[in-house]
Amino acid sequence: MSLEQQIMTEMKDAMKARDEGLLRALRAIKAEIIKAKTEPGAGGEIDEATEQKFLQKMMKQRRDSLEIFEKQGRTDLAAKEKEEMAVIEKFLPKQLDAGELKGIIERIISETGASSPADMGKVMGVASKQLAGLADGKTISNLVKELLSK
C-alpha cells in the first residue's frame, strides 16, 4: 500500500473517531504528497525516496518549532507539535539509536581516514548518504564533530 493510500485510510478512521490531532497531522502529510506530485517533472507520481525526504523535512520543521515553543513557554503549541511528530514518525523508517549511530560514524571516519575537525566535510558527505532517513542530520553532525575532536 502506498503512503497516500495509507494516509487516506487513516484519515477516514481519524474522522470517524473525531481525533483532531491525528487528522491535523495526516492532512499535513497529504498536503505534502499533493505538493510533491504536482511539482514540475514529477509526472503525478512520487517514489518512496521522495516520500521519505518530505517526511524527514516535516519532522525537522516540527522539531524546530517545538524547540521554539518550549523556549517561549507555549506548552499548548508544543503539545500540538509533539502530537504531529508522533504521527509523522509512524511513516518513517526506524531511527538508529545513539550506540548504533556512533558505531557507523566511527567506521566511516576510519574508512575516510579523517583525523581532525578539518575533515568533517569529508565524513559528513559519506555519513549523510549512508544514514539518509535513519538519523537526523543535526544528530549526525554533532556526533561527527564530537568524534573528530577527540
Characterise this structure:
This protein has 150 residues and is mainly α. It has 7 helices and no strands. It has 2 domains: 88 residues, Hypothetical Protein Yqey, Chain: A, domain1 (Orthogonal Bundle); 51 residues, Arc Repressor Mutant, subunit A, CATH 1.10.10. α3 runs antiparallel to α4, α5 crosses α6 and α5 packs across α7. The longest helix is centred in the middle third of the chain and has 24 residues.
Portion in helices: over 70%
Query: What's the order of the H and E elements?
Result: HHHHHHH
Q: What's the total number of strands?
A: 0
Instruction: State Rg.
Output: 18 Å
The general outline is globular
Task: Give a short summary of the structure.
With 150 residues, this protein is an all-alpha fold. Helix content is 74%, strand content 0%.
List the keywords.
Hypothetical Protein Yqey, Chain: A, domain1; 2 domains; 150 residues; globular; Arc Repressor Mutant, subunit A; mainly alpha; 7 helices; single chain
Ordered list of secondary-structure elements with their pairings:
Elements: H1 3-17, H2 20-37, H3 48-71, H4 75-90, H5 98-112, H6 120-130, H7 137-148
Helix pairs in contact: 1-2, 2-3, 2-4, 3-4, 5-6, 5-7, 6-7
